[in-house]
Design goal:
247 residues; binds magnesium ion; alpha/beta; binds adenosine-5'-diphosphate; P-loop_NTPase; 3-stranded antiparallel sheet
Length: 247
Amino acid sequence: MDSALTVKNVFVSYHGNEALRDVSFSVDPGSLVGIIGPNGAGKSTLIKALLNLIPKDQGEVKIYGKNIKEMRKFIAYVPQRSHIDWDFPITVLDAVIIGCYPTLGLFKRPKKKEKAWALQCLEKVGMQDFSKRQIGELSGGQQQRVFLARALAQKAQVFFLDEPFVGIDAASEETIIHILKELSTNGKTILVVHHDLSKVNDYFDQLIVLNKELIGSGKIDQVLQADVLSKAYSGRFSFLDKLEVQA
Ligand code: ADP
Ligand code: MG
């Protein structure tokens, strides 16, 4: 079986400061993967480098054996919420439509069919009643759900979400993880950056543990081990205590 994602020897630096060193791993199709590690570990950098949004010093990335360029329209990316300009004047519906039809341009009016599909995707995340709102007027959880709707509208095969659960309400978190699990059951591959360890056991079937270097990668029960975690979080034992409570 072809890997959904293959990452080989990726190095990234910012102005000479190394952010990622020699990161290699692969992900099977249909996996729901958590990317974990402490703040500043390079999780966001990894996603951006995989998607060619920032340059790599070295390394190779393949999606279903192909280059990102060829696969772009099959890939959905939901950036870290804090990195999005929420003052940008756009309605919820338009955010979903423009997200799924990047070639439409600002001056062409979307067709009925496109609007109907966008509304269907908003309904899936429980946001159909908010379609005329400005995205800046939504709560964190609602914004995150709209961005998931946009990713759904795109009919992507591979999804990258950067910290989708930060600063959102419990109901939105539940809606989002439910949809991600359903997508993965339907064969979609999903990578989710998640900066703390609570719930990783419930949420993911594979983990990538990062702290500039790859500390571990594989099935959750193989990776969610005290030695791996203490290496990644370098002795921040409160996380490990939490893990023991969970087990
Ligand atoms: P994480 O998402 O795991 O918190 P990041 O990928 O955002 O980590 O950052 C990894 C490291 O790279 C950090 O030390 C951060 O300060 C640095 N970094 C991230 N983005 C930039 C940037 N645009 N310019 C310079 N340094 C950056
Ligand atoms: Mg980050």
